């Protein structure tokens, strides 16, 4: 399935049913009073979080989502049936922007972060009043009934930012996909050429029987200038914003260093650091871990270079080989501990 992280849709709520103008017609009641019922309310359109979805692909070929209108009121004071609401499922992490005429950006209307969370994007119109509502002591035969109100109609831009505990970042072909496949049941495409991963991949990691599982994201490779839109640019970087912890993966064998002007492990790390800083400096304040990959084919000078660069940045450093499994178990333990500490810090800050 193609990964779709942006979609444009048109939502239209249902119009309310018209009120009815009617009078009682019964035997021996020559002048029956007004008996027109109210119209039913139109259906509203809601976006609903669905944890089973991780793309906006299902919205790609349907641009209009319209709720039903309410039924008209009827005689004998019968109120028209209100229409049911229309629920549109979206993946968790979806941000909703309301578009103005001629604009493709829009203002943020809300976001959906939890399974089953609902966001009203178009309210249904209210039903019109029947003529029975207008009867008074001085106007006992009103000939007035209200039409139903129009439902709201909007153009929306949906943008998906993946919700993951750990995001794995690095240059193309640094071994991110191999790492994801080694620590989880995810099976991303793996090959020995750059940009094998063109879309984010998610995997669930189970650190142990008594530890809480966490979600790890294999994010497409960065290149110099990504923050300005080069390569996969913003399509990649927007997903980093939702990750609680980042793993900087650097190839120790040198096979992924062609995109580094310096041609060194420290240079590879500097490129990723620079692009994250250019996109959002706040990303560098999150818990981060520098990991040297492909330890089974590592060059000694690259190991020394990367370890030194990590120390200079004040970041923890670990080496792994996803192919042989060396260091992988220890890395999972480090990530589990780091996430637990991060969540505990957030809870403490929330408690004041």
Describe this structure in words.
The chain has 352 residues and is of the alpha/beta class. It contains five helices and 14 strands. The chain has a six-stranded mixed β-sheet, sandwiched between helices. It is rod-shaped, with a radius of gyration of 29 Å. The model is unreliable at 188-198 and 225-233 (pLDDT under 50).
Helix content: 10-25%
Q: Strand count, sense and closure of the main sheet?
A: 6 strands, mixed
How many strand elements?
14
Evaluate the radius of gyration.
Answer: 29 Å
Q: Report strand %.
A: 15-25%
- Uncertain residue ranges: 188-198, 225-233
Query: Helical element count?
Result: 5
Structural class: alpha/beta
Shape label: rod-shaped
Ends apart, CA distance between termini? 44 Å
Physical arrangement of strands within the biggest beta sheet: 10-11-9-12-13-14
Keywords, separated by commas or semicolons:
352 residues; 6-stranded mixed β-sheet; 14 strands
Secondary structure elements and pairings:
Layout: E1 6-12, E2 45-49, E3 64-66, E4 86-90, E5 94-98, E6 107-112, E7 118-122, E8 153-160, E9 166-169, H1 176-183, E10 201-205, E11 214-218, H2 233-240, E12 245-251, H3 265-279, E13 288-293, H4 300-313, E14 317-319, H5 328-350
Parallel strand pairs: 1-3, 2-4, 9-11, 9-12, 12-13, 13-14
Antiparallel strand pairs: 1-8, 2-7, 5-6, 5-8, 10-11
């Amino acid at each position: 399935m193609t990964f779709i992280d942006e979609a444009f849709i048109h939502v239209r709520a249902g119009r309310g049913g018209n009120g009815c103008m009617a009078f009682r017609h019964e035997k021996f009641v020559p002048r029956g009073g007004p008996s027109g019922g109210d119209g039913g309310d139109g259906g509203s359109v809601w976006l609903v979080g669905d944890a089973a979805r991780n793309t906006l692909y299902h919205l790609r070929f349907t641009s209009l989502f319209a709720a039903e209108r309410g039924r008209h009121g009827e005689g004998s004071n019968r109120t028209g049936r209100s229409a049911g609401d229309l629920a549109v499922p979206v993946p968790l992490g979806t941000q909703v922007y309301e578009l103005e005429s001629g604009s493709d950006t829009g203002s943020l209307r809300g976001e959906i972060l939890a399974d089953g969370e609902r966001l009203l994007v178009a309210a249904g119109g209210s039903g019109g009043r029947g003529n029975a509502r207008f009867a008074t002591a001085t106007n006992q035969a009103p000939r007035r009934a209200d039409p139903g109100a129009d439902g709201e109609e909007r153009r929306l831009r949906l943008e998906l930012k993946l919700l993951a505990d750990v995001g794995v970042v690095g240059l193309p072909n640094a071994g991110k996909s191999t790492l994801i496949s080694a620590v989880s049941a995810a099976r991303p495409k793996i090959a020995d050429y750059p940009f094998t991963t063109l879309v984010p991949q998610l995997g669930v990691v189970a650190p142990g029987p008594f530890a809480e599982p966490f979600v790890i994201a294999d994010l497409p490779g960065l290149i110099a200038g990504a923050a300005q839109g080069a390569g996969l640019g913003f399509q990649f970087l927007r997903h980093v914003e939702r990750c609680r912890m980042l793993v900087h993966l650097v190839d120790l064998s040198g096979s992924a260093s062609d995109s580094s002007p310096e041609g060194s492990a420290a240079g590879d790390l500097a490129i990723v650091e620079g692009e994250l800083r250019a996109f959002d400096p706040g990303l560098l304040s999150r818990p981060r871990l520098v990991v040297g990959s492909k330890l089974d084919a590592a060059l000694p000078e690259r190991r020394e270079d990367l370890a030194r660069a990590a120390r200079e940045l004040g970041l923890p450093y670990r080496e792994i080989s996803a192919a042989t499994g060396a260091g992988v178990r220890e890395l999972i333990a480090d990530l589990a501990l780091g996430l637990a500490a991060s969540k505990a810090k957030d809870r403490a800050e929330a408690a004041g």
